[in-house]
Amino acid sequence: MGYSPNIKEIKVVSHRRRRRNSAPRSALALSSQLSKVSSDLLIFCVMSGVGENQLISIVPDELKFLFELEKQSYCDLKVANKTEDYVAFKVKTTSPKKYFVRPNTGVIQPWDSCIIRVTLQAQREYPPDMQCKDKFLLQSTIVPPHTDVDDLPQDTFTKDSGKTLTECKLKVSYISPSTTQRSSESGATNGDGNGSETISTIQRLKEERDAAVKQTQQLQHELEMAKRRRNQSNSGLSLKLAALVGLIGLIIGFILKLTLASPT
Q: What is the dihedral of CA 110, 115, 116, 120, to 10 degrees?
């Protein structure tokens, strides 16, 4: 009985020390595990392309077209290289017959940029509720320095090639001329000074659209002329070949005639 108070006191003191020492250790271990998991998650997002596109920047992030029947419209995209490497890009769309993209493939030098013009072909009817479900996909990847567009391998933009391929999706929206006209009229009636600027902006867009239409028509005309020249060259070659064969036949016939007509 005389030793029980000392033994009890020793147990309580050792138990309290263990609890005080174990608590901060568990907290430190938990915080280190959380920091490790967050860093691993960040690295995974960057490597898989889930986060922001680190190779290029695209402005604007949505394609908007002034939609009018039987008229073409276009939208320009500015693609900038944000790295010290050469970056190749490729533009894909869910409706390739409706849009004309130039250039659809290219290589951007380090810290440089380029303009991609997307032209909406003339449409014969309005979409339901002026809603567009078309989408664009812009793929980009790092290529060796001084790489030309014609030197890009066929598997440059395939995900199974082992390269780091980043993708950016762009939505498409249509703007009706009546909407822009109403907005310009409302700005003019409110007297806020923005009505004239809106009207001039619309006029400038129409002029640029007309210029784009003329340029597209000129390119199509040049393409047709090149096809005609190629066909003419092929037809001219076939005519020359036929004339040569006929001449050879005449010479052989003349020689045979002389041979048969000579005395034995």
A: 170
Q: Kindly state the helix (H) or strand (E) to which residue 30 belongs, with its residue range.
A: helix 4-48
Digit-coded pLDDT (tens) for 218-256: 777 778 887 887 777 666 677 788 888 888 988 988 888
Closest CA to 83 of 137, 127, 30, 141: 141
Distance CA 215, CA 106 (A): 20
Q: What pTM value is reported for the model?
A: 0.52
- Secondary structure element (H or E) that encloses residue 167, with its range: strand 165-175
Of how many residues is the chain composed?
A: 264
Angle, helices 195-261/177-190, rounded to nearest 10 degrees: 150
Q: What's the CA gap between 71 and 69, in Å, rounded? A: 5
Contact 184, 195 (CB under 8 A): yes
Tokens describing residue 37: 């998991």
In which element (H, E) is residue 59 found? strand 56-59
Per-residue HEC secondary structure of 37-48 comes to: HHHHHHHHHHHH
